[in-house]
Amino acid sequence: MKEIFRLVMPIVIAVALGPLIAGLVVSIFAVLTNILENAGSLAIVDLLDLFGFYIVFAYVLGSMIALLAGTFMSIWMIWRPPSAIVAIAAAEIATCVYMGIGALGFLGPTEWTNARSNFLFTFVLATSAAAGCWFLTRRFVRAL
Q: Residue 2 pLDDT > 60, yes or no?
């Protein structure tokens, strides 16, 4: 039972925390852009309404990437203990695989997935989400 729990926890952590961290990163980026750029800036109250949208959209797009990255982490944990490099590499590989499948048209028309135009943005967010997940959960790795 403990072995199954140990292999399922990276998937749960990645799916629960990964998109949340990515949505918060986008929200912070929107606030900084709004503060530092004077042209066409929104009121802070309007940005607070957008935070929920950013987080929900991060879960819509990022949950599949996080599921794939968590699966890669679980496979890695069968043979070796996890590390920050492995967590970030799993997220980057999962992003490349998911966006590659989207660019090939297997997720629907490529106009709907935006896999070609949003790859770098999603790649950076997945990297930051993986680093954030590792930073928040690294102390519990030895306990498992």
A: yes
The pLDDT tens digits for 103-113 are: 887 877 766 66
Q: Average pLDDT, whole number, for the chain?
A: 86
For helices 119-137 and 44-79, angle between their N-to-C axes, nearest 10 degrees: 70
Residue 127 backbone dihedrals phi, psi, to 5 degrees = -65, -45
Question: What's the distance, CA 69 to chain centroid?
Answer: 9
* pTM to 2 decimal places: 0.86
* Most distant CA pair in the chain, distance: 57
Domain boundaries, the chain: 2-140
Residue with tokens 């530092």: 36
> What is the enclosing helix (H) or strand (E) of 78?
helix 44-79
Residue 76, token pair as written in the block: 């890695």
> For helices 84-103 and 119-137, what crossing angle results, to 10°?
150
Q: Rounded to whole angstroms, how far apart are CA atoms 52 and 48?
A: 8
